[in-house]
Specification:
This protein has 340 residues and is of the alpha/beta class. The chain has ten helices and twelve strands. The radius of gyration is 21 Å and the shape is globular. The two termini are 24 Å apart.
């Protein structure tokens, strides 16, 4: 049973959440369903929503994640909203991460320039060989404005080499997206509405985590950036230890969001590695408390250009081998209550 205000047909659209009306609706819904506050939960269930933002989830926006169906993120969020409303009384807390960017960052076109003064096109890849050859270099006009004093050529080579050495995706130039203050940065309205209602019904504020703000590194993973230090060891950005501790404190943790091939894949892998480091003898005991919602996430697929589906599936398979559970939002409540 879903509340009367939820309309799955508008999940793929941009609109204003009527907070006043929903606050009244939330009070009525809580009373009708007899839902108790989260502070009374005997077992704490967290829901981690990775980058469920307009920029990734609304058709026509900058980096819409269509998956192979062409409607991936929209359909994912329809199922996600339904899951939140069905299990409003089970979810202790929702944690929503937000890709947060500005124009002059290492993965945006204007950061790089060639000898002709041109910028790389969105969705192009800057290979290590091209950077070492000087085909593309950091735009000298922005170097004085960067937060760290760098040798731009040396840093460019270091960054590309680090990605290669750590077997990460090569440096991808993305369309300008997730721009701070822009409409693309906002959460999808239907998901924001569900989070708002949950926070009022369960008396549990949504926790928002901003990521990706440092200009000198990409930040696919919610937990740490792609490159953390310069060649001399100077720190660029740090692991989000506080968030890791928080996520692992739940008795159960559900993970959904976009894109399965990038921010979701890198996050679950980092979380898996954190579990291995903390529990080398029996990592599966903690890993099995994590549930990956396979039907609430999609990979980056651009027909005729790139398809990251296989990489996304491989990441989820690795996490399943560790003990994480791949589940469907449409399945029964049984998996929510495992290990209870």
């Amino acid at each position: 049973m879903y509340p009367s205000w939820f309309n799955r047909e508008t999940v793929g659209e941009v609109w204003r959440v009527p907070y006043g009306d929903r606050a009244q609706d939330a009070k009525t819904w809580q009373q009708q369903q007899q839902i108790r506050p989260a502070s009374e939960d005997q077992r704490r269930l967290g829901l981690l929503l990775i980058d469920v933002q307009n920029t990734f989830c609304i058709p026509g926006f900058e980096l819409f994640v269509g998956g192979r169906s062409g409607r991936g993120a929209v359909e994912d969020n329809q199922r996600l909203c339904e899951l939140i409303y069905r299990h409003l009384g089970d979810i202790t807390e929702i944690i929503a991460t937000m890709d947060t960017h500005s124009a002059l960052q290492i993965f945006h076109p204007a950061f790089w320039v060639n000898d002709a003064g041109e910028h790389p096109a969105p969705m192009s890849t800057l290979e290590l060989a091209d950077i070492e050859a000087g085909t593309w270099r950091i735009n000298p006009e922005i170097v004085p404005m960067l937060p760290l004093d760098i040798d731009p050529d040396a840093y460019a080579r270091h960054y590309a080499r680090q990605l290669t050495q750590e077997s990460k995706y090569p440096l991808t130039i993305w369309a300008y997206h997730g721009m701070t203050g822009g409409i693309g940065h906002s959460l999808v309205a239907a998901v924001e509405e569900a989070c708002f209602v949950h926070s009022l019904v369960r008396r549990s504020p949504t926790r928002y985590e901003l990521k990706g703000m440092h200009p000198l590194t990409e930040n696919y993973s919610v937990l740490k950036p792609e490159v953390q230090t310069m060649a001399d060891g100077t720190a660029i950005a740090e692991t989000n230890t506080a968030l890791i501790e928080h996520l692992l404190s739940f008795d159960q943790l559900i993970i959904a969001g976009q894109a399965k091939s990038h921010c979701v894949a890198w996050t679950v892998r980092d979380l898996g590695q954190e579990i291995r480091d903390r529990h080398p003898q029996n990592p599966e005991t903690m890993a099995q408390k994590i549930y990956l919602l396979e039907d609430c996430t999609s990979p980056v697929v651009i027909p005729g250009v790139v398809d990251f589906s296989e990489g996304a599936d491989a990441a989820f398979a690795d996490c399943a081998d560790l003990g994480m559970q791949r589940v469907s939002s449409q399945s029964s409540l049984d998996w929510l209550h495992q290990n209870a």
